[in-house]
């Protein structure tokens, strides 16, 4: 199984306040901006592409969203690291056979056809890691 860095998710209080750094200092370009109001997600997202990486700025929609809870507990900053895999189902099966635990309630397909799931941080020594693949059109 190939694991390729797909993006880094960064929790922010305000996308509008955070964007200038990523656009003007890191010379990024705003690829997309959308809102996911799915229960248990509830986040505004800005997708910024730099020369070689993708960054997702994550702003909570409300005080009960997972990103709001993250910021309250840990502060702003890196929320997760996402790795693209060849096939999400196969990656989950292989990792599970090696004792990796997943946050099953996070498994979903987002608005852009990215299938994803988060690995339970107890399996990664505390880092929230997303595995994802993309539906073929």
Automatic annotation (TrEMBL):
Would I find Cytoplasm among this entry's keywords?
no
Family matches, as InterPro entries: Glyas_Bleomycin-R_OHBP_Dase, MeMalonyl-CoA_epimerase, MMCE/EMCE_epimerase, VOC_core
Pfam families reported for this sequence: Glyoxalase_4
Q: Which Gene3D superfamilies match?
A: 2,3-Dihydroxybiphenyl 1,2-Dioxygenase, domain 1
Residue ranges annotated for the VOC domain, each copy included: 4-134
The UniProt entry, under CDD domains, shows: MMCE (cd07249)
Q: Does the keyword Metal-binding apply?
A: yes
Q: Which UniProt keywords apply?
A: Metal-binding
**Record's family?**
Belongs to the methylmalonyl-CoA epimerase family.
Q: What is this protein's record name?
A: VOC family protein
């Amino acid at each position: 199984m190939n694991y390729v860095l797909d993006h880094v998710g960064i929790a922010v209080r305000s996308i509008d306040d955070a964007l200038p750094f990523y656009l003007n200092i890191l010379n990024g370009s705003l690829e997309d901006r959308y809102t996911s109001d799915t229960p248990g997600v509830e986040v505004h997202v800005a997708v910024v592409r730099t020369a070689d990486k993708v960054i997702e700025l994550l702003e909570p929609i409300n005080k009960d969203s997972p990103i709001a809870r993250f910021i309250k507990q840990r502060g702003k900053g890196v929320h997760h690291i996402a790795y693209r895999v060849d096939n999400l189902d196969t990656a989950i099966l292989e990792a599970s056979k090696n004792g990796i635990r997943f946050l099953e309630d996070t498994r979903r397909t987002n608005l852009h056809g990215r299938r994803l799931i988060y690995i339970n941080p107890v399996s990664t020594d505390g880092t929230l890691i997303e595995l994802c693949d993309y539906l073929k059109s």
